[in-house]
UniProtKB/TrEMBL annotation:
Residues covered by the VOC domain: 10-126
Gene3D superfamilies hit by this protein: 2,3-Dihydroxybiphenyl 1,2-Dioxygenase, domain 1
Protein name stated in the entry: VOC family protein
Residues annotated as signal peptide: none
InterPro entries in the cross-refs: Glyas_Bleomycin-R_OHBP_Dase, Glyoxalase_6, VOC_core
UniProt source species: Mycolicibacterium rufum
A Pfam family the protein falls into: Glyoxalase_6
Length: 129
């Protein structure tokens, strides 16, 4: 019988590059119901948590937003946010500072949004409930 290898560690946080970590932490904190966990003295890193997951925003200068769905600066990762009602979630995300992406491949299942720094993320009913 072959045993699975032991992990080296566990995922500590997901980090997102941005121009203003505090602003993006406030946005995702409100969107996901997370609170501030830590902030470096220079404000270059702000991490938020819901008690289980940690999302960290890291200042990059100069920051260049990704293009979506293709282009010179393609996305390298994105978050899927599970929701019960897509239209209500889109309205709430826009109120927080997000905007809908121009291209929507399957808007009945996923709404592609852009956060205040331009990162794509999806609101989806897949996995909700």
């Amino acid at each position: 019988m072959t045993s699975e290898p032991l992990p080296v560690g566990r995922l500590g946080a997901t980090s997102i590059d941005c121009p203003d970590p505090a602003e993006l932490a406030d946005f995702y904190g409100a969107l996901l119901g997370m609170r501030r966990l830590v902030e470096t003295p220079d404000g270059g890193v702000v991490a938020i948590t819901d008690g289980a997951a940690i999302l960290a925003m890291m200042r990059v200068d100069p920051y260049v937003a990704p293009t979506w769905p293709a282009g010179a600066r393609p996305q390298q990762m994105h978050l899927d946010v599970s929701v019960d009602d897509l239209d209500r979630a889109v309205d709430a995300a826009e109120h927080l500072g997000a905007r809908q992406a121009a291209e929507q491949a399957q808007p009945s299942l996923w709404r592609v949004m852009l956060d205040p720094a331009g990162h794509p993320f999806c609101l989806t009913t897949v996995g909700a409930g």
